Amino acid sequence: MNKRSVEISVGFFVLIGMLCVAYRTVKLGKMEILGAITIASRPVSPRLSGPEAGATVDMAGVEIGQVESIELDMQAYTALVTMKIRQEVV
């Protein structure tokens, strides 16, 4: 093999390695780039304690999304919870 083909092969494997690292970073960080819908909801109870931004949202013990933010609605005195839910669940 000549020098140019070796360099192209090494560059290809480096690119594949970088793509694998990027994929694992997204998966380990539990981020969703595609396939999620953002939903804003108000809890039934006016008192909300426990969940915080970044917490997981479970249904029947299966993780279906993540809490994006929790804000206080001063007019209704309730919490407004914004969640990112996987699209196939909605």
What distinguishing features does this structure have?
2 domains, 4-stranded antiparallel beta sheet, 90 residues, elongated, Elongation Factor Tu (Ef-tu), domain 3, alpha+beta
Q: How would you characterize the overall build of this protein?
A:
It contains 1 helix and 4 strands, in the order H-E-E-E-E. It is of the alpha+beta class and 90 residues long. It has 2 domains: 1-31; 34-90, Elongation Factor Tu (Ef-tu), domain 3, CATH 2.40.30.110. Strands 1-4-3-2 form a 4-stranded antiparallel sheet, with no helix packed on it.
Brief overview:
This protein is of the alpha+beta class. 29% of the residues lie in helices and 34% in strands. A 4-stranded antiparallel beta sheet has the order 1-4-3-2, with no helix packed on it.
Helix-strand blueprint:
Layout: H1 3-28, E1 36-41, E2 56-59, E3 62-73, E4 78-86
Structural class: alpha+beta
Q: Helix coverage percent of residues?
A: 25-40%
**At the third CATH level, what is the topology name of the largest domain?**
Elongation Factor Tu (Ef-tu), domain 3
State the major sheet: 4 strands, antiparallel
Count of separate structural domains? 2
How far apart the termini lie comes to: 54 Å
Instruction: Describe the global form.
Output: elongated
Poorly predicted residue ranges: none
Q: How many distinct beta strands? A: 4
Number of helices: 1
Query: What percent of residues are in strands?
Result: 25-35%
Q: What is the architecture of the largest domain at the second tier of CATH?
A: Beta Barrel
Radius of gyration: 21 Å
User: What do the pLDDT scores average to?
Assistant: 77
Q: State the fourth-level CATH superfamily of the largest domain.
A: Aminomethyltransferase beta-barrel domains
